[in-house]
Amino acid sequence: MHSTLLSATKFASRYACSAFAFSWLHQQRPWQNPKLISMSLLHGIRQMRTGWADGPEFVTQCPIRPGGSYTYRFTIQGQEGTLWWHAHSSWLRATVYGALIIHPKQGDSYPFTKPKRETTLLLGEWWNANPINVLRQSTRTGGAPNVSDAYTINGQPGDLYNCSSKDTVIVPIDSSETNLLRVINAALNQPLFFSVANHKLTVVSADASYTKPFTTTVLMLGPGQTTDVLITGDQPPARHGIRQMRTGWADGPEFVTQCPIRPGGSYTYRFTIQGQEGTLWWHAHSSWLRATVYGALIIHPKQGDSYPFTKPKRETTLLLGEWWNANPINVLRQSTRTGGAPNVSDAYTINGQPGDLYNCSSKDTVIVPIDSSETNLLRVINAALNQPLFFSVANHKLTVVSADASYTKPFTTTVLMLGPGQTTDVLITGDQPPARYYLAARAYFSAQNAAFDNTTTTAILEYKSAPCSPNCKKGDGCSLWLKEFVREPR
């Protein structure tokens, strides 16, 4: 929505004290008076002996005529960081503006952690009308100008506006990396609050002056102000892992980002996987139907590459879920009608089966094969609605190698704790006497008198050479139970 009229720009200073020059080539807009053309204001630049070149048209200098150009020459001294420029002709500054970045001089570095990458974010305003006409109408009527129809980031209003839902600005980041965001409030007269969901911002500079770093979750920028912040990729990826590159609109709840799929209909999801390997998952995004419709999404190394750990003999995916002896939509509706909390689930499941401790599935308990001395990969997914779950395998250690499709430094544990939606990949080695060992998952609540599903779901880790029949039962001498971890059903 915003186009720049600058050509032959040279903004990347290598010196803290440098002479700058840039040219502005004017291109006439349909609504502009061909005789009244804007000048540029260099917002924040300390003009040394050149202040006359930086001001409104017809006040400090003549405007630039259509098809003409003007070269700005100025000196930067004692400033590093983010500034900006804009047209200085009435409300044209709402449509023509850009960033002006002053880097440390050659050989110097930032006085803070060097960022992996830098991204400039220009916050602006947009009217569904010629902004000059908006101002003229206000002048004629004596009333306040109409408020803007949208705010923008780098010229795009974003996902909440139909006009740009497919062109929402993407700011890349990778797990554990620290990036620099240069945030500029280019709105006409409006202070703006800026935040990043679930992330903290470390302020390191304001208006091209370094500050003592401090951490916050919200920035408040007055009109024309700039703030540089460091942000670290320290959160698990959203949307259950897939980093949607320009397709976020296709990944969300029904009637919010897109229409639902009709009965008997279909929809093809097309997305790009970049920089991710491991285990993610998908689920229905319609109320509590996500408790019934879900599955794994496995991203293998690309052809020719290998895992950064011991190659497993085999791989098994374990989806931990919840089960109600009722339609889960009705459970939620009852809660809405009564104002109380929804009834807790009646069972937890592993790959859809509650396991040996529930009569309904004691003959269908999931079997996970393993052989002596082999190392296998378990991909564990917590697909429960809202319940953190603990997972363990009797008498076996688990080596964590990946979480939420990001490899980790391997470490060994006996118990996993997975929050709702989280995934963890672990290596398990058949180093115990051949038998059948329980895999189990259960919840834990420390709050007193808080209702929760206090049952345990199980599967069986079965050695090929185990000496008894497939469906072992408690007390027959061939199953090793998880002491203390397993609890009888309610």
UniProtKB/TrEMBL annotation:
UniProt EC number: 1.10.3.2
Cofactor annotation: Cu cation
Keyword terms of this UniProt record: Apoplast, Copper, Lignin degradation, Metal-binding, Oxidoreductase, Repeat, Secreted
Listed GO biological process terms: lignin catabolic process
Domain Plastocyanin-like: 42-106, 118-244, 315-465
Localisation: Secreted, Extracellular space, Apoplast
Similarity section: Belongs to the multicopper oxidase family.
Protein name: laccase
Species annotation: Malus baccata (Siberian crab apple)
